[in-house]
Structure formats: structure tokens, C-alpha cells
Amino acid sequence: MGKTGEVSRVEASAAWSDWQPLAAHPALSAEVLAEILDGGQAFRWHHETDGVWLGIWSDCIARLRLDSAGHVEWCAPAPLVGRVAAALPTYFNTDADHAALVGSLPWRSDAHLVRCLDEFPGLRILQQPFGETLLGFLCSATKQIAQIKQMLAFLAARHGAPLLPETSFLTFPSSRFHRLPTWLELAAIPESDLRACQLGFRALYIHQTAQFLAAQPRWLEETKPLPYLAAKARLLELPGVGDKIADCVLLFGAGKLEAFPVDTWILQALANRYGLTGWKPAQLAQFGRAHFGPLAGLAQQYLFACERRAAKAPLSRNS
DNA sequence: GCACAGGTAGATT
DNA sequence: AATCTACCTGTG
Fold this sequence. Notes:
Largest sheet: 5 strands, antiparallel
Helix content: 40-55%
Shape: globular
Order of helices and strands: HEHEEEEHHHHHHHHHHHHHH
Structural class: alpha+beta
Mean pLDDT: 91
Strand order of the largest sheet: 1-5-4-3-2
Number of helices: 16
Distance between the termini: 66 Å
Radius of gyration: 20 Å
């Protein structure tokens, strides 16, 4: 035991790599970083303390924080540094010219959009693993972000492979350091075990989707690169995937910026700010793609963030 | 106790 | 085609 303690102490000092800068991109505020990581795109980022976020995706674990100038810095458990260094730019989409993307939104003719862009400068769309994004949003139906995160935490802890060797247990004692189960692994889990992860009626959808994907192992990777409409048509074949979830998976897990998910927040935003009261989700989606153009999904994320903030901190009613 | 959550699918008009 | 409901379950 004493020996193990010494080993863990040594590992603890070398456990996390040094902080290093992520590729250059517009500076972010703490609020915008929180909105990117914990605003409903991704469900496996947790605020640790003091502006440090811990996240897991695919077989990567990383911590993120902002330096004094608002640029993102990252570190990773020492054994995973190379892997995270290779994956993080894609995940955070650092190659995209974010300013140019935002600049090509129709802000000139949309005063509300300008307000949203000003309130969350630098807000961006992540590029998450396709399959994991599908799993996350299959959990999302009528659930709040905190509960979706809890479901995925259960799934990872109980059914996902550990990401660090056993000897790291004392250094990294948290059950958080498991990846999510793959779809092949999910296919082998009885529905009752999924329900035990607090999935509720979503358990059946995930179980059936897992059977489907296990029977066609290349289905997901064949779907991801298809054009938006073709990929969406395929996703809609999956049990439990409707318009909204399909658009979320394509936007947050396949970089299809023309996807325009219409959830209750966007419903509110378009009703309150654009006067589209009483419109149905399919009509609103059509409006969104027509009004905001080929980057409608990016605009959607700004509208979403603004509407949530407005609801969270209601101020005196103004037009 | 009960309405409500970042929906979908199947039944009923 | 459009509208109504059941589906799980933690939270307020």
C-alpha cells in the first residue's frame, strides 16, 4: 500500500501535462466559453473550479481554461497528451475562420441577430464525434442539460471503457474518466440496464437504434459525409430520431451548418423576436434556413444562447 | 401532489 | 395533413 501511495504521488505530480495554447482564434469571455462547452451542444464538460473545464469526448480527456487575454489553453492527462493534441483542433474547430463565418450571416438586415452576436462574441459550433452526438441527443428529449449530462455520466461510468490505466486510479479517482460506450457496445446492453441509467422511455429508442447500427457497422460513417438533406433523411430512419434530433446531430456532430434545429428555445426566439407566433416547428425550420441562409445553424446557436440568457435573467420588458 | 423539461411515434380526427 | 397523447423521471 505504501508503495502504491508513492507511485500515485509521483504520478500525481506528472499527471496532467503543462497548459499550452490552443491554435489562435478570437478571444473568449468566460461566459462564452461556458456557453460553448455547456450550452447544449455537448454534455460531457464539467466546470471544475476557477474557470477550468474538464471534458471527455471519444477517447480524449482534456482540461480547458482561458488565459488573461481570453485565449483557450488546454492540458491533458500525461498518457493522452499526443492524442488530445491531435484531436482538440478538430473538436474546437480552430481551422474555421470564425469571424468570416459570423460575418456572412445576414446581420445587416437583422437587428436581433446583431444583438445576439454582440452578446456572445466568439460563440462557435463544436465538431463532436458523430456517433456520440447521436447518443447524446437521443437522451435529450424533454430533458434539461443537467439531466442529459447525468444520463451520459451513468452510461460512461457503467458501460464505457476506462480511458486511463488501472495504475492511474489513485491519481484520477473519478468515474468520469470513462469514454461513452460505442454503438456496438450499446447493442449488447439490455434495455433494462439502459433504463437503470435514468434514460426512461429513451432507453427503448437507444436500444433499437443500437440494434440497427450494430447490424450495419458502416452506416454512421457512411452517413456523416453525405450532403445535409441526404444525411438527414438517413438519420430520420433511426428510431427516436425526428427532425430536431437529426438537425442537432448534423449541426454539432457533422459540421452541417445549414441544419437548423427547432427546439422550444428557438420556438420562443422566433415567436418573441421575429413575430412568428403560433408557427409550427417545420415552418420555423423552413423560415430559419431561408432567412439565415447556409449558416443557419450558426445563427441558431446565437439565438438559442440569447433566448436562454433572457429567460434566466428576466429584465424589464422592452420591445 | 402536479406541471414541466432543448421530442418522437402512433393513434385519432 | 394536422392535432392529440403516451412515454420515464428528477426537479420545482
